[in-house]
Amino acid sequence: IVISSPTESQVTNNTKPTVNFTVTDADSGVNSDSISITVDSGSAVTSGITKTAITNGYSCSYAIPTALADGNHTIKVNAKDNDGNAATERTVTFKVDATPPTLSVSAPTNNLVTNVASCTVTGKTSDVTAGIKSVTVKLNGGTATNVTVDSSGNFNTTITLAEGANTIVVTATDNGGLSSSVTRIVTLDTQAPVINSVEISPNPVSTGEVFTVTVKATD
Questions:
Q1: 57, 35 in Cβ contact below 8 A?
Q2: In the prediction, which pLDDT does 219 show?
Q3: Phi/psi class of residue 71: alpha, beta or left (left: φ > 0; alpha: ψ in -120 to 50)?
Q4: In this structure, are strands 90-96 and 11-12 parallel, antiparallel, or unpaired?
Q5: Do residues 23 and 3 touch, judged by C-beta distance below 8 A?
Q6: Which has the closest alpha carbon to 29: 84, 69, 75?
Q7: 3-class secondary structure for the chain?
Q8: Can you tell me the distance from the alpha carbon of 109 to that of 70, in angstroms, rounded to the nearest whole number?
Q9: From the CB of residue 21, how many other CB atoms can be counted at a distance below 10 Å?
Q10: What is the pTM (predicted TM-score) of this model?
C-alpha cells in the first residue's frame, strides 16, 4: 500500500480532501473487496472507493464525504491479497486549516493625513491551526514586500509615501494557503495652503468703523 496524497504532515485548506493510494501484490493479486479506508477514529469503509486496475493491483481514490474540522487527521488504509494475507497498514497524518489568519493593523490609522513621508506600518497576526507563512505590505499597487514577523506575531516596517492619497494593503498568509488583508488609506500633504486674496470691506474704512476682512485660500 502506498498513499500518495495527502502527504505526511501536509497542511490543506480543503475540508473534504481526496485520498489517493495504490495497492499492489505481485503474487496472488489484490482482493479488491478487502481494500478499506479509515478516517480518524471512525469505522473502516470499503464503499465509495474508486478502484482502477493497474499492473498487479489497483490505483484508488476516496473523496472524504464529511467536512473535517481544523486540526490533525489520520487516514488508515488496509487490504488483503487473494490468498487472505493482510498488507501492512499504511497511515498518513495531515492537517486541515480552513480558517484564515487573524490580522490587525494598529498603525497607520485609516484615512490618516500627514506631512511626513516616512510611514511605519505596525500590526499583529496569528493562526492557531497552521501557523503564519508570511506577511506582506503593498503600497499603491506595487510589489508586495515581505515583512519579518516575530514569535508573537508582531510585525512592523517603514514605507515611503507618495504625495497625495496612498493605498496600503497588508496581507497575512498561513501555511494552509489562506490569507487575510487589511487596507489603509493615508494621505501625504507636504504643501502649505496658498492664500489667494485678502479683501477689506468697506475700503477705505473710517476710524471706529466696523469692517470685514475676507480671506480666500486653497489647499
A1: no
A2: 85
A3: left
A4: parallel
A5: no
A6: 84
A7: CEEEECCCCCEECCCCCEEEEEEECCCCCEEEEEEEEEECCCCCECCCCEEEEECCEEEEEEECCCCCCCEEEEEEEEEEECCCCECCCEEEEEEECCCCCEEEEEECCCCEEECCCEEEEEEEEECCCCCEEEEEEEECCCCCEEECECCCCEEEEEEECCEEEEEEEEEEEECCCCEEEEEEEEEECCCCCEEEEEEEECCCCCCCCCCEEEEEEEC
A8: 33
A9: 22
A10: 0.78
Residue 148 CA to residue 136 CA, distance in Å, equals 9
Residue with cell 488508515: 76
Residue-wise pLDDT for 122-166, tens only, equals 999 999 999 999 999 999 999 999 999 999 999 999 999 999 999
Say which residue the cell 490533525 belongs to: 72
Cell of 82: 487473494
Please give the grid coordinates belonging to residue 34: 478487502
- Whole-number Cα distances in Å, 195 to 114, 188, 191, 198, 199: 21, 20, 12, 8, 11
